[in-house]
Design brief:
Helix content is 28%, strand content 25%. It has 209 residues and is an alpha+beta fold. It has one domain: Gcn5-related N-acetyltransferase (GNAT) (Aminopeptidase, 3-Layer(aba) Sandwich).
Amino acid sequence: MAIMQFHFVTKANEHLFQLELEEFFRARHAVYAEELGWVPKSPDGLEIDQFDTAAAAYLIMMDGNEFVAGSRLIPTHLPHMLSEIFPASCDLAPMPVDPRVMEWTRGFIVAHRRDKSSVRILAQACAAVMEYCLSLGCTQVGGIQDQKWIPLWTKMGWSIRIHGSPIDIDGEPWLPIYFDVTEAAMLAARQLGRLTGPVLKNAAGQKAA
């Protein structure tokens, strides 16, 4: 097994990650269209929605040349999944509308890597997201989240701010949840993910020259 590589791909550096970005959208299609059936299957085998705009940032985790996991961040002052798909979901606290608050969605691990190491991979993803958000000066990150992951976030000592009542998605409860972006949250995720330090090469996650 190679050392896990973490990249945040944005409009500014996507020219460096064309292959990885295509793998991300192809893997998303395998999960959200083929496995879960949440979106229609696409002829090109890519899952791209209305929120995959120039404002999006994508976490891409690679084990050597193998795509392992990914997710998407979008500033909440722009149209995002919670504001457009679940606009009435925040019935307990206001929906964030702030460039310093990121929506975190479309998170997944490829099917054949969902084993005993899944929690470690998830914790590593959490650490990378916190590291990236800290580099941008963000204050919170979150969005519509699967309630089953609350024990993981609790284990890491993350602040869990529930903004609304449960929403039924495929028979499972999902909640609008936001987490405070702090160094402590990042370090706790690193510890659970067995990471010894920073995982991003720089704030933009660009490849080294």
